[in-house]
Design goal:
- By secondary structure, this protein is of the alpha+beta class.
- It has 9 helices and 15 strands.
- It has a 5-stranded mixed beta sheet with strand order 1-5-6-3-2, sandwiched between helices. Strands 4-7-8-9 form a 4-stranded antiparallel beta sheet. A two-stranded antiparallel sheet has the order 10-11.
- Helix 2 (35-46) links the parallel strand 2 and strand 3.
- Helix 8 (248-262) packs antiparallel against helix 9.
- It is globular, with a radius of gyration of 25 Å.
- The two termini are 20 Å apart.
- 24% of the residues are buried.
- Residues 1-5 have low confidence and may be disordered.
Length: 306
């Protein structure tokens, strides 16, 4: 969120002057024309000890400002969405001269680091931002996962069995038996949960809530799904969008429905057939496989994720 008017020009001048140029926690960019590089540095700050990016200040520390419009904030917001895990970015606007403004993007060190921007991880050393070496990224990611243990195997905090979607659980068990993944259906919900290793010592694991939970807010906000169809090839205008919370099976069903509603389907009449032959632009099985993988392999340790 952008906060206008919470910093005066003298305060900005003092802040820029005290920084004595770009360094470990400070980066200057003349305008949002350099937003890509600015976001890479912001990612480096998240992976380090935090910092500020000043948009509207030259490399030499001269405050020049820039014209700021709604389109500017939309561009910045779209760039911030490319940070993973989702990060809290504080935005501050400072009017400098002739209606021009400096936009300050500030972050604290992210406890969920390593973070990436547009799929790549960056680090900040001195006044230089660079790609994080693969070995460092793997080491830091491994340390994060070790520190958090295996999230889905942890206790669900007393989540009651009565809040699970029992019809979905029964349907899952029947499908598992019909496909040969279980020899027989367990007798009752309790036995089923124990057999699927979703309950230990009478207490549900988080995996049980992700798979079958009906009540997810406020304790499990990451069990969410964001779906959108954009106009054209950019993400500046929505034709349709939905956000919802639900267990994994419901999310899969909703995502499948959303795709089927928006993906073009070609149709043709073939000689000798009474019914039209419809062919979706993408194979439905391939789309379903992609959705299942996304739901199964996403990082549920991030409360703000979806």
């Amino acid at each position: 969120m952008s906060v206008p008017g919470d910093m005066t020009l003298p305060e900005l001048q003092r802040l820029v002057g005290e920084s004595k140029g770009e360094w470990e926690h400070v980066e200057f960019k003349k305008s949002t024309g350099e937003l890509q590089a600015a976001m890479q540095t912001l990612c480096g700050f998240l992976n380090g000890s935090g910092g500020r990016v000043f948009l509207g200040v030259t490399d030499g520390g001269r405050i020049v400002g820039q014209d700021v419009s709604d389109a500017t904030f939309q561009e910045v917001a779209n760039a911030i969405r490319k940070l993973e895990p989702p990060a809290r970015v504080t935005q501050t606007r400072v009017t400098v001269q002739d209606g021009r403004e400096v936009l300050i993007l500030q972050v604290e060190a992210d406890p969920d680091a390593p973070c990436t921007f547009d799929g790549r991880a960056y680090r900040r050393i001195g006044n230089t931002t660079s790609l994080m070496p693969r070995e460092e990224y793997a080491r830091r990611l491994g340390a994060r996962l070790t520190a958090q243990a295996i999230w889905e195997n942890q206790d669900a905090g007393g989540y009651p069995v009565t809040e699970l979607d029992m019809p979905e659980l029964d349907r899952t068990l029947r499908d598992a038996v019909s496909q040969g993944r279980l020899e027989s259906e367990p007798g009752g919900a309790d036995q089923a949960l124990d057999r699927l290793n979703l309950r230990v010592d009478g207490r549900l694991r988080r995996a049980a809530v992700v798979l079958f939970g009906k009540r997810l807010m406020p304790d499990f906000p990451q069990c969410g799904l964001r779906m959108a169809r954009f106009r054209g090839t950019t993400k500046t205008e929505f034709l349709d969008q939905r956000q919802l919370h639900g267990h994994a099976f419901r999310l899969l069903e909703e995502a499948t429905t959303f795709l089927s509603r928006h993906i073009p389907v070609a149709g043709r009449i073939e000689p000798g057939k009474l019914e039209r032959t419809d062919t979706p632009l993408y194979p439905p099985l391939a789309l379903r496989e992609a959705l299942v993988n996304a739901i199964c392999h996403r990082d549920y340790t991030i409360p703000g994720g979806a």
